[in-house]
Amino acid sequence: MTIVDAVLLLTALLIVTVAVGLFLRWKQNRPRHQNPLEVVEPQRLGATALGERATLLQFSTEMCARCPGVHRVLGSIAEAHDGVLHLDVDLTHRPDIAKHFHVLQTPTTLILDRDGVVQTRFGGTPNRGAIELELVRVVGAPTPV
What we know:
Layout: H1 3-28, E1 32-33, E2 54-60, H2 67-80, E3 84-90, H3 95-100, E4 108-113, E5 118-123, H4 128-139
Parallel strand pairs: 2-3
Antiparallel strand pairs: 1-5, 2-4, 4-5
């Protein structure tokens, strides 16, 4: 193998690695619609009830740097919509919940409908606009407070 061949091979590997990384980052912040087979019980999460129209369920950990920002965004969205509740579950000492919901990164956000069925899942830091659109899809017409 000549030096030119080695440089070309390394360049090709670099291009493939960057392309895969960009694709994974793009995919990470997109909503994924869920198969509505599971109903989330609020007691398991340490809550008394879910939202009347929808619930924004955030999974966080103590060491998560992005979680406080997501908490503020989800809280303000919930406050702006009647019947929408924001729950933040700290998974630091609850690996059973992380395993059950297949949470591999924090923050992870689930949008639950009025019955507690998971409708949408966001891995990583979700876009506010995407959350708003998914919330409107789940609850119907927007109802600002």
